[in-house]
Write a structure and sequence with these properties.
Layout lengths: L2 H4 L9 E2 L2 H4 L4 H16 L1 H5 L5 H16 L6 E4 L2 H9 L9 E5 L4 H14 L2 E5 L8 H10 L5 E7 L12 H10 L2 E6 L10 H4 L3 E5 L11 E5 L33 H7 L7 H4 L1 H10 L2 H23 L14 E6 L4 H12 L1 E2 L2 E4 L2 E7 L6 H15 L13
Parallel strand pairs: 1-10, 3-4, 3-5, 5-6, 6-7
Antiparallel strand pairs: 2-8, 7-8, 9-12, 11-12
Length: about 400
């Protein structure tokens, strides 16, 4: 990638940062806009946080910009601090009962596995985990495997759009259609998707979809969204009851006390907090547009796949999927059994390389993220470092997990 692009970011130049997928990295102009909002907040907190004079209109501008980017209506998108929060709102609102089933896969993010375990314990529902075998090479096989696990007791289908541990792009479109046909509620974890792949949420049609803006969209930390289909919004309860809640919020189509959809007001109007990360989302969208970031992403995809191919040649281990099912800018590279914590720490301490290394269901993985600030020279350094370290590493049961 261009040196000029690397200079657009605040990352420590001494660190080879190959872990954009965990928490993202915010470009300088976007971070400047974020701090501008924070300064405005501190200069006149009352006016800024007033829902009529400041906060409400500012939130609406950001919501409209994001909705346009994601192919959705502003009334159907509410800001949250991260995707886990958005998905918790959904999971803890569902009226599940003993005997109901939550259908998911073995590739889900660990925090959400815990969320559904909590919900199952509270409601008596059961979690059914479908084993999606590797390598993933067929959309039809994926579809048939998940559909084959649906029963008349399935109430929820929970899937990642892009998986965290295995960096797979799941072909979920047909499953959402099938879930609706069967009356199953579809809940999608889109933590890694905004800015990573092109999204049209209305066309996708999931009942609920939550994604992060701070990862691949490159907005500040603390910016994410929950999208809900209009006919499902009245079923949601906010995690915090505050100013945006009204007693008649269960009535479909009722506007909230601040003039937005009841869904938006309930989620967004929850007392004093710093809204600056969300308000900087339009700046992140503008930065991507000004730098033709979909083109940058395509270059990153080529570099990521090239690096993964070099690792396969080095290790002799097969890929976890064919390229069409791999997240464009993120790839889970299998490596020989080793102590993942020791390898990670040595990569940081000796080579200044930041990349997650972990064990996942019998695989040892180095998960590479490639963003516009990365270079082929950095990939050369990674390949050389892993080549040296893997000759020395020993198997262990210690485990680390990615974000």
């Amino acid at each position: 990638m261009s040196t000029n692009l690397s200079q657009q970011f605040l990352l420590d130049p001494e660190v080879v940062f190959l872990n954009h997928g965990s928490f993202g990295a915010c470009p300088r102009p976007v971070f400047d806009d974020y701090q501008r909002w924070q300064l405005e907040l501190e200069r006149q907190p009352v006016a800024f946080l007033d829902s009529r004079r400041g906060l409400g209109p500012n939130l609406q501008v950001a919501r409209e910009a994001l909705a346009k980017e994601l192919g959705a209506s502003p009334d159907d998108i509410a800001q949250v601090s991260n995707a886990t929060t958005g998905l918790n709102i959904v999971a803890r609102s569902l009226e599940l009962q003993p005997g109901d089933e939550i259908l998911t896969t073995n590739h889900e993010y660990s925090a959400l596995e815990k969320t559904w375990a909590f919900v199952a314990r509270k409601t008596g529902a059961s979690i059914v985990v479908v084993d999606i075998g590797l390598p993933l090479v067929s959309a039809d096989a994926f579809h048939d495997t998940v559909v084959g696990a649906m029963t008349d007791r399935t109430r929820v289908l929970f899937l990642s759009h892009i998986t965290s541990p295995t960096a797979l792009l799941f072909p979920i479109e047909g499953l959402i259609v099938e879930a609706r046909r069967r009356g199953i509620i579809s809940v999608i974890d889109g933590a890694h998707t905004p800015g990573h792949i092109r999204l049209d949420l209305d066309a996708l049609g999931a009942d609920f979809y939550s994604g992060n803006c701070h990862k691949w969209l490159m907005s500040p930390k603390g910016s994410a969204f929950l999208h809900a289909r209009p006919e499902r919004q009245a079923t949601l309860d906010p995690l915090v009851i505050s100013h945006g809640w009204t007693a008649d919020n269960k009535l479909a189509g009722v506007r909230g006390p601040f003039g937005n959809s009841a869904f938006v007001d309930e989620i967004e109007m929850q007392g004093t907090r710093d809204p600056a990360p969300w308000l900087a989302v339009p700046a992140a969208i503008a930065f991507r547009r000004d730098h033709d970031w979909w083109k940058v992403g395509a270059e990153c995809q080529r570099l990521a796949q090239e690096t993964a191919a070099r690792m396969r040649e080095l290790t002799g281990l097969p890929a976890l999927s064919t390229p069409e099912f791999c997240a464009p800018q993120m790839v889970a590279m299998p490596i020989p059994p080793c102590d993942p914590v020791a390898v990670h720490d040595t990569l940081v301490d000796r080579y200044n390389i930041e990349i997650p290394v972990f064990e996942w269901q019998g695989h040892t993985i180095a998960r590479l993220s490639c963003q516009g600030y990365n270079t082929r020279a950095q990939m050369d350094l990674l390949i050389g470092a892993l080549s040296d370290l893997l000759a020395l590493a020993q198997p262990t049961k210690r485990r680390a997990t990615p974000d």
